[in-house]
What we know:
CATH topology of the largest domain in chain B: MetI-like fold
Oligomer: heterodimer
Shape of chain A: globular
Structural class of chain B: mainly alpha
CATH superfamily of the largest domain in chain B: MetI-like
Order of helices and strands of chain A: HHHHHHHHHHHHHHHH
CATH class of the largest domain in chain B: Mainly Alpha
Radius of gyration of chain A: 24 Å
Largest sheet of chain B: none
Strand content of chain B: under 5%
Distance between the termini of chain A: 24 Å
Number of helices of chain B: 15
Strand content of chain A: under 5%
Radius of gyration of chain B: 26 Å
Largest interface: A-B, 105 and 109 residues
Shape of chain B: flat
Distance between the termini of chain B: 23 Å
Structural class of chain A: mainly alpha
Number of helices of chain A: 16
Low-confidence stretches of chain B: 1-9
Number of strands of chain B: 0
Mean pLDDT of chain A: 83
Number of domains of chain A: 1
CATH architecture of chain A: Orthogonal Bundle
CATH architecture of the largest domain in chain B: Orthogonal Bundle
Helix content of chain A: over 70%
Number of domains of chain B: 2
Amino acid sequence: MTDTIVQPTAGGILHDSTEGMSYLDTLPKRIVTTWIPLGLILIVLLFPFYWMVLTAIKPDDQLIDMEHFNPFFVIGPTFKHIYKLLFQTNYPRWLWNTTYVSVLATAISLIASVLAAYAIVRLRYRGAQWVGGAIFLAYLVPPSILFIPLATVVQSYGLFDSPMALVLVYPTILIPFSTWLLMGYFKTIPYELEECALIDGASRWQILTKIVLPLAVPGLISAGIFSLTLCWNEFIYALTFISSVQNKTAPVAIVNEFVDGDIYRWGSLMAGALVGSLPLVILYSFFVEYYVSALTGAVKE
Amino acid sequence: MSQAALVSGRQIVPARRTNLQRLISHRDWQGFWFMLPAVAILILFLAYPLGLGVWLSFTDTKIGRAGQFVGLDNYDWLSDDTTFWMATFFTVGYTVFASAIKFAIGLYLALLLNKNLPFKALLRSIVLIPFVVPTVLSAIAFWWIFDAQFSIISWSLRHLGLIDHNINFLGDSWNARMCVIFANIWRGVPFIAITLLAGLQTVSPSLYEAATIDGASRWQNFRFITYPLLTPIIAVVMTFSVLFTFTDFQLIWAMTRGGPVNATHLMATLSYQRAILGGNLGEGAAISTAMVPFLLAAIMVSWFGLQRRKWQQGSE
Lengths: 301, 316
């Protein structure tokens, strides 16, 4: 029951098995027109990651001696860089900061977005349409034109150099997106369910928590996963508002703290980039479908 | 109809209500309470700073010192500043080139992925990885790939006998511009490809079959079926892409920091340099505010794209 209601938006656009007229293509033709271009694009898209991993596990001497060792491979991989990163720098602390800020900001924006989206779609108070439009516009305001005034705002609230500044500011990126996505989900839940609940004497709050939210779980997961990746990715606010070394988030810390004149810095830089990306890639690989539906849903709505 | 049922459902509750009950249960007030958290955050940290930014651009505020109203002085100063104009032109060029190429490759990749392939879902997830990995971290990987001394590209070309000395990727103005544009394309293609793919998957294959029976060529299939049906989603996707390319910051900051000799400064990186590193908040805010007209233009495009979509849906 639950599944049949919500599924169309969760995975409905992603039918994978449309054969169409492809049976008309012969194998050689298919190789030339499909597999070769696709392979080339994939190699270009993935090469930087291969290079990242390779550099992170390469011993220093192979890193800079490109004449005796073929740079595309590694002989005797080492975990030295990663070990150094995890046990001799503040890296775990930065990862923790990033996680903490991302999770809190995502939680705040999910709560705010659920309430806002429900009100816009179902309460239909006066002016709901306009508020919906305004939230879409807020989606289009980029951080790079806000960070200067926000720096003064954050300063005047006394939040400068505190992770709380990021926790409060990140929802401005996440709320417009999540609200827009959840509005789409809530629209797919039939009115009749809510009418029944109203007749049985449920309050608005009970309807939201006991009926609408359980049905919108895929939407919540989509919005949550996408929000987490957006937070993890965020750079300009974290760069501007955080100044002390221990409060930095991982992306900012790697750019600012690892870049020195050392010729051997590449090993630890790439290790930092790798370890900073892995949590996201792992999270993404578990929730690909939700992530894709968030990405495409936000554009389609 | 269902709306009427909802309203009558509520009227069963005894008619007399205190003011407090009305605050809790009247529909407009309920709407207000539900909207409060989202709206409060958006007003405090989005709408207010947006206005404040415009105001700051008319003042001579420095870090740690409140500013005085100075009228258009900041803009006056910027209009004589060659670095600012260079950054503006590069921002526009960066956006136009990167978006055009991203669109072409993204659409091509979407069409490839829309074919009947084995492991389609897996391929789709792999394609999206560059978009998932934090931009700064992949930018650092590109920084290393484009390193002057140890670039893997220089190495490969040297060993293929195509060049005899390393290419100075990020040290030369034009090379550096090409490199950041390339990195931006690399990062943006997956987003465009996957969103367009979602649009393509809603196009029924029977349309192509019918057209092919009528003698349409492959190109005609694309031009007269795929493209018109995809236009609305293209409009939205490209608006987002243009918006995020135009206001890009992290990629440039991680790869070149605007160098060499300011050749790769975007308006965003220049405003960061002037406002946060240089301390001239007023001047930085003026640069940010100068981006707004461009953004409004992009939003207008999106608006008309959406309008057209409604019209198309209406005819269905």
